[in-house]
Every structure is written in C-alpha cells, then in structure tokens.
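Supplementary Methods, section 5.1.

A reviewer requested that the exact input to the structure prediction be made available. We therefore reproduce it here, unchanged from the version used in the analyses.
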Amino acid sequence: MKNLLTVLFLSLAAFTVTAQELKLNDPLPVNSRIKKGVLKNGMTYYIYKTDVVKNVASYYIIQNVGSVLENDDQQGLAHFLEHMAFNGTKNFPGKGVLSTLQKHGAVFAKDINAYTAFDETVYNMDNIPTNVPGLIDTSLLILHDWADGLLLTDAEIDSERGVIKEEWRTRQNGYMRLFKKSLPTMFNNTKYADRMPIGLMSVVDNFKYKALRDFYHDWYRTDLQAIAVVGDIDVAEIEQKIEKLFSPIQAIKNPIERFVITIPGNKEMLYNLGTDKEVATSTLVFTINHPKSLKDETVADLKESLYSGMVSRMLSSRLKEISQKPDAPYVSASASYSSLARANNTFGLIISPKPNRQQQAFKTALAELNRAVKFGFTQAEIDRTMAVYNNFYQTKISKIDQTPHAEIVNTIQKNYLENEAMTDMSKEFEIIKQIFAQMTAKDLQDFIKKLYTPENRVLDVTGVEGENNLSQAEALQLINEVENDATLVAYSDEFVGKTLISGLAIKSAKIVSEKLNKEIGSTRFVLSNGVVVDYKFTDIEKNNVLLEAASFGGNSVIKDADLPSASMVSTLARMSGLGDYSATDLSKVLAGKNANARVGISDLEENISGMTTTKDIETLLQMIHLQFVKPRFDLDSFKVLQNNLENTLTQRKNDIGTKMEDSITTSLYGFNNPKKRLFDEKYLKDISFEKIKAIYQERFKNPADFTFFITGDISKEAVKPLLEKYIASLPTTKKKEKWQDNSVSWLNGTNKKVIFMEMEDPKATVRISFKKPYTYSLKNTYVLKAFQDILENRLLETLREQEGGTYGASVYSVLPKRPKQIASFYVYFDCNPDKVEKLVEIVHQEIEKIKNGDLKKEDLDKVLTSYLKDLKEEKEYTGYELNVMYDYAIEGYNRNDPKNNVDLINAVTPQDIQNLVETIMNGAESFEFIFKPKK
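The structure derived from this sequence is encoded token-by-token as follows.
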C-alpha cells in the first residue's frame, strides 16, 4: 500500500472495468512470495527469493526500538548502540564485521550501514555475494551478533563518544536547529519532541558503560526483532539456517512494555515560529493530524490509501499550476498525506513563499485546498489520476521480477513495524479497479472534507529575521477568511484532450543502412538525414527502455558572457513545456504514459536523455522529435525562473556552505574570472531569455551532429519504423562540431588559507586538494580510484576511529580524458575546531605513507574486490548496455571486453599506486583551506 502514496510522479492510462461487489471488510491479498515466520522465542523472519541482481542477497535486522523508548538520562543511547554494532561482536571482535564483508567487496556506508529513528533501528548488509562458500552463513551470523552478541567494551564505547559528537557537529546547521525547535509543536509535546535520535551530547559524553549495556539488554530482544533476507537464495535453506541459528537466543523474561505513543488531538491550532541567522528563506507547513490504525489491513484501508493519494496528487497539481505563473506568491507548494509517527498520519500543505509574501502564499495555497473541499475535483482530473494508478500498477506488475531489494525490504519493514499488509500486486490491482468502477466525484470530495478537519491543526513557520513573518493571529484570520469566502468558485479544467504532436506534419524518411556490431552486439542504423543510431535489445530489465543522444561542443563553444544563460537552458526548457504545450498542459497530454526526456548542456557536450516503457517508446521519440523541431520557450516561465533564482540567491545569502564555496572559488580563480563566476546579483542580471533560446537553438539545431543510443526491452522490428518517422524526418546539416579547451588555471600553484567565519555551532571544515598532469588510460583511472578509496579507508580509521575528531572524511578523485589530462584528488571533512591542526597533519601523513610505499596488499584487495563486485552488479541493469554503446562509439573501447576492466582491476598493484602518488605529489598544484569559527 505504500506505493499508493508515491505515485505522484507517474503518468497515466485509461481503462474500463466491470463493477463488482466490493467487500470492504475483506483482508488484503497476501504476497505469497514473501515467506514470513515467527520463531518460538518471538523473533520474526522474512525471506524473499529474487535474482534481480544475480548471486547476491541483502540481509536486514529490523529492531522495533528507537529513541522514543529512551529515558531522560538515556537520550542518544539508541543511536549510540547502532554505532556499537560495528565496533565488536561476539564472533567479529573489533572492526571484524566491516573487515569480513569488505574482503568480499562490500563498502561501508554503501553496502553496510544502519540508521536510528524515533521508533526503529535498522541494520543492513546489501548485495553480499551468495556464490562464495560460507558467506551466507557468515552474513547470518553477523545478524545474530547484532541481535544478541554486541561486546560493548569500555574502550570501544569511549572511542565512539567522539565519533557521535562529531556526527552531531556535522549535522548541525540552521535548518537542523529550526527542526528541533519545531518538534514540540509537530508532536504536540509528546515524548517525540524530546527524543531526537542523535540525543544529547551531555549524555553521550557522560553515560556509564552499564547504562548502554542495560539499554541493549532491555530493548534488543527477540519479541522486538525481525530478520529479513532478500536475494538470490534458496528460501527453504535460509529458513532452516535462521531457525537453527536464531532459535537458541533466549526470550527476555518479564520484558519492559514496548509502548506506542499516540499524538493527542488539539482543539486550537498549534503554532510555531522559528528563525535562524543561517536561514534566509521561509517555509510554511500547515498540517492536520489523523490517527493511524495498526490493525490488520482490509480493503477499506486500501481504499482510504488510494483516496488520500488521489486527492494529494490532484491538489498538488493545482498548486504547481499556480507556481508556474509569474505573479504566484510562492516558489513551490504541494499537498501530502503521509506518516507522522507510528500511530499518526498527517495531511496538509508545504509552501515555500517568495520573500516577504508569506501571508499571500498561505492564503493562496489554503484557498486552493478549500476550493477542493467545497467543490471537489473535475471529472477530467479524476480520469487522469485514475489512469496514473492504472499505468503504475501495469508497469509494476510487468516488472515484478525487477523489484529492487530495498523496495521489498521496505514492504517487509512496514509490515513488521506498522502491520501494513504485504500485498499481491496483481490481486491488489483488481481491487483497485473495482474501487474505481464504483467511485464518484462526490466520494473524493467527501474524503478531502474528512481530511480537512477544524481540529488537530498545526502550523510551523520557518521565518526569516527582519521579514514580516506569518503570525498565529494572521494565520487564523486568513483561515477564517478563506473558509468563509463566498467568492470562491470551482476549479476550471479547460484542457481539451490532444495528442503530443497534434497539428504537426511529420514526413517519414528512411533507414539507409543497417550494420551489426558483432563485438558488442549492437546494430548501427544510418538514417537518410545522416543521423546515426546505435541500438541494442536487452530485456535484463523487463519493460524498460533508455535513450541517449550526445554531441560534442557544450559550454566550451559558448561565449563567456553567455555562460550564465547557458547554465539555465535545461531548466527553462523543462519549465516551458514542449511543442504547443505548457508544462502544466504537457503533463495532461502525457497522461497515462511513462515517457520522460530531458536536454542538458555540460562543459563539453550537449545531450538528450530519455527513459520509457516498451509501450510508450513512440511517445518518447515524439518528445525527442519536438525537442529538435519545436522546443518551447515561454516568457512567463522565464519570469518564474527569475523569481526562483532570486529566491535561491536569498537562500544562499546566509548559508555557511555557500560562503565557503565562494571563498574557495575566489581564492583559486579571482573575483572576475568569466568562466568561474559567483552566483550573485550580477550573474542573475546576465541571464537573458533571448540568449537562452538562441543557445538552445544553436546547440540542438543539427541532429546529425549527435549520436543516438537506444537500448532496452524493445525489438528491432518495433523500433525501426519509429526511427524512420520521428528521427529520420528531422532536418539536418552536414556541420560537425568539436569541443574546445577552455579550461581555467588556478591563480597560484599553492594555496593555503585559514578563514574565520561567524557560525552558530562551532565546527571546522577542511578542504585539501592536489592536482598534476597525468596520462589518461583506463588502467590509470582504476589506479587513481584505488588510491582514493584506500586513503578514505585510512582516514576513516585514523581521523574517526582513533582520534574521534570527525564523523568521516570523504576523498574524491578524477582523471579526465578531456579537455586536459590532469589527475586530482580532494579530501573533505568537518571536525572539532580544537583538533583541526592535528587532523590535517594526519591527512598529510597518510598521503606521505602511501607515497613511500606503506601500503598493505590486503587493503588494496578490499577495494579492488569492490570494483569487481560493482562491475558484476552493473551488468544487471539496462543502463550498462547504454554505457557499452556510448563508450564504443565515443570513447573507442569495448566495455564488455575484460581487458578493459576486469583484467585492469586485477592487474593493479601496490607499486602502481605508489608510483601514481609519487608522480602527483612531486610538484603538484595544491590547496588547503581550513574554515574556523570566529571566536
């Protein structure tokens, strides 16, 4: 059922169904593919077999335990305990969990992770190989230890205190401070308001060891734990292993009650206003809380979920339509019905007003909500929205075997924690069609009336210092005015159904040659207008088709003065719509279709990318055709874009991260470099509607300068006539473009600065980089990446685990083939200001160690194994075949040939990495920026 709340982005299709009797009290059809059981000790388990990614499985333990269960003197222990699961267990002492899995290619924070929330703590090991002898047993043993085998040694607890504190420091900013201030209002002063999962640093610093061990004993227990295994496994075998391994864990006698907090109702509207020096734009969140049933779900619950999704979508569409007008008082607004807490849902509006227009923005959005309450929705809106669901279900059912692990686990998690049904998608769709057959416009109006109650209302205002912020009295007055506005009239849907290419004369042309590329299994079509299309069939993902068209040139051939306008080409093209249709009408024209295409201009390329389903490939190619012959540039949309950019500029004004970025840019390139400009008022003034239009027309005027790539679940026989009609018919010229080298050098080869900044919560930010010319090759890209990942792992161990000075350091590297072959790497972290000098010194020491050959082969093997693992998994997706064709045509090599990846990865040695680092560091250009709080 969760899917019904996430379909807002999907397109639609019409259908008919014969009305049948709808039994609202019937249970929902169960997905029999999910094996669910409960051990005698109370532990629940779920097993699901899927080869969406072959020879791997994902392992989860879902703890029905979160920060809301903490006592006042335990605030932060639920989250602290999560960290300790990676710091020593009975069978995997020290960092044994991580080191064991890393040997098989798993990466911490990507494949191995966990999170703590108010009501649950969830641990995951994703995409762990199942074809490695003993690794399934090892993975299950890790789950076992997380459930009942944490060591929680004194030394490891003390070591982790600093890490937690730095996580808190890293996450602290103006928005986090305002979020915390809003909690008592959002949760009506229940325990949720005082239980931010990160906790209190005073508790983190000072709790006794026994307190954490007691929390573990009290709450990590079998009646509050569920195991989930999803992947390419044998269900019966996994069930047997789970029963054998987990059954011996003893159930806790006389357990503490696992209580559930219900947010109480309120007669008067709850209100909160928060401002922060680092937040310069406002947000209004107006919600109405509703109870959430945790009983077994029935058809009635599915119907309610369906209706809530429909009214949210239709109301959001109306609100978005307003935002696309230049005089709209808000930048964006949407409606949603979502989960607030374990026992509560919430319905309401999220509004981002334009500066000093909070009152008008609130009134306008609220009026639209009341319009729907008083007059309901038009039949056209309802028909389109019903078709959204029809299309959604048809697509999901056609791809049921491609459902990602994470989506399956999410279904399992909702079932375990909130008793949400794990339904059979096909049977659920049959019920949906019955609901639609009996649904009337009045039903939906009655439903939104039920959501819009006079009680349980909450208004949270993120205000701006110095602005006329929306007060509680003003809000109540506006609500009263809108609810009693006799001039409010029903919404008018004037759109008349048309096709995407109505009125457009398209004359089909020909495919003049067709040649099989035996090396990569693709077919190259040359069209009569000179366009080249590389095509390959693959059904590795059923009902999925991807398209890419690429041409060299990009920003490198655009005048410096026009670069600000060039940066907005893609955005304005999307905002303006396509062909004869505005963005609003385009979404209606595309009702019932899964087709999306977007243009882009990068430094060296212009491109069009698209994705669709098998049935909608023609619609996608129609969109591509229009993007060449009939792009749309709407002046009103440009005015909206200007307003949005001005709002973004205001938002950035007080943002610490933006100030840091601007400081680095001006230090490296100066204040007046035309290719490295700051996003400021002058930049905005240089964005021109006419220039955007002219740049688009210049960059996309010749389809024959592009190479097209199409791959997916579409046969050659089906795609050929569509290419002849929509691509071969495009007007072309014989002009071919090349990229230009317009790269920019730093002003100085060595840059070292300490910059002091005013900030509410003191923290230091470190940014270090080195770069030097280095020959591009596929092997060298792997060598550089291996250095990057080894360095990051070392910094994780030294800066985080040993020093407790940072939550984590990130390392990025790049070795481009063009415009210049320069190897560079970049180190970034936030940290304790008192430790920054020591931590920076450690970074340089670790780089120097690698340069001097201090490099363990086992550390290299871990990262290389992860690359081989990633490569295997990439081949399970359609996008891999698109990349194969692109690399062959544009970069000149066969990605499928092991000598271009597997052999290169296996050939990387410690000496290769040492040589690379020696070469880069010998005379490298560099920068080191340290940002500190002003005293």
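Residues 241 and 305 are 37 Å apart (CA to CA). These observations are discussed further in the main text.
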